[in-house]
Amino acid sequence: EAQVTQNPRYLITVTGKKLTVTCSQNMNHEYMSWYRQDPGLGLRQIYYSMNVEVTDKGDVPEGYKVSRKEKRNFPLILESPSPNQTSLYFCASSLGGSAYYEQYFGPGTRLTVT
Amino acid sequence: AQKITQTQPGMFVQEKEAVTLDCTYDTSDPSYGLFWYKQPSSGEMIFLIYQGSYDQQNATEGRYSLNFQKARKSANLVISASQLGDSAMYFCAMRGANTGNQFYFGTGTSLTVIP
């Protein structure tokens, strides 16, 4: 089954404790991306990757890191989480960076930072 | 800069009736794609429909259709014969040909279908 998986689905952590949210897709997609969703703000793009070893900032990259060492994986790293990073996070992938390709989303990771 | 605007935070519709969810956009890209996603209370994002900026006809997928008015920069989603399962958040999104690396979302519209 074609899918995007994320782990963990739920995470409660404390300020400053480094964490990684994993994302993997099995569709051989070139493009992958991370979003955060906050009430009233919709989805905002954090980082995206056009291919292996190619990453770039979205609209809200501060406090996050990413890496793309393999085509299928695109982990999101919070090196020193803060309470304002409490949010619902989505990983997504698409065939490429064209305007004509829809994105497929993972199930989401609900992160709480206390 | 790219921008998507959804001005209806919440909408109600009677079961079996049609409903239109509004979306306007702003872009300097000559070519772009417009997308609608549904997010039920369970949280997942479900792709509904796509419209390319050069498509001559409005996109249709089952009960979903996209009312695309390029000159007005609007891409409204029409849901016909609403069902209780249509109750969800709906997001409009855009991707430009020159800025296709980035995907822009609106703030969403919460639709409630009333029995």
Q: What would you call the quaternary organization?
A: heterodimer
Shape of chain B: globular
Element order of chain B: H for helix, E for strand = EEEEEEEEEEEE
Mean pLDDT of chain A equals 95
| Helix/strand/pairing category of chain B | mainly beta
How widely separated are the two ends of chain B?
41 Å
Helical residues, percent of chain A? under 10%
The CA-CA distance between the termini of chain A, in Å, is 36 Å
Query: Which two chains form the greatest contact, residue counts included?
Result: A-B, 28 and 29 residues
Describe this structure in words.
The complex is a heterodimer of chains A (114) and B (115). Chain A has 114 residues and is an all-beta fold. Helix content of chain A is 0%, strand content 50%. Chain A has strands spanning 4-7, 10-13, 19-25, 31-38, 42-51, 54-57, 65-66, 76-78, 87-94, 104-105, 109-113. In chain A, the strands form two sheets. In chain A, strands 2, 4, 5, 6, 9, 10 and 11 form a seven-stranded mixed sheet that branches. In chain A, strands 1-3-8-7 form a four-stranded antiparallel sheet, with no helix packed on it. Chain A is globular. Chain B is mainly beta. Chain B is 0% helix and 53% strand. Chain B has no helices and twelve strands. Chain B has strands at 3-5, 10-14, 19-21, 24-26, 32-39, 46-52, 60-61, 64-69, 74-79, 88-96, 103-105, 109-114. In chain B, a hairpin with a 2-residue loop joins strand 7 (60-61) and strand 8. The radius of gyration of chain B is 14 Å and the shape is globular. The interface between A and B is medium-sized, with 28 and 29 residues.
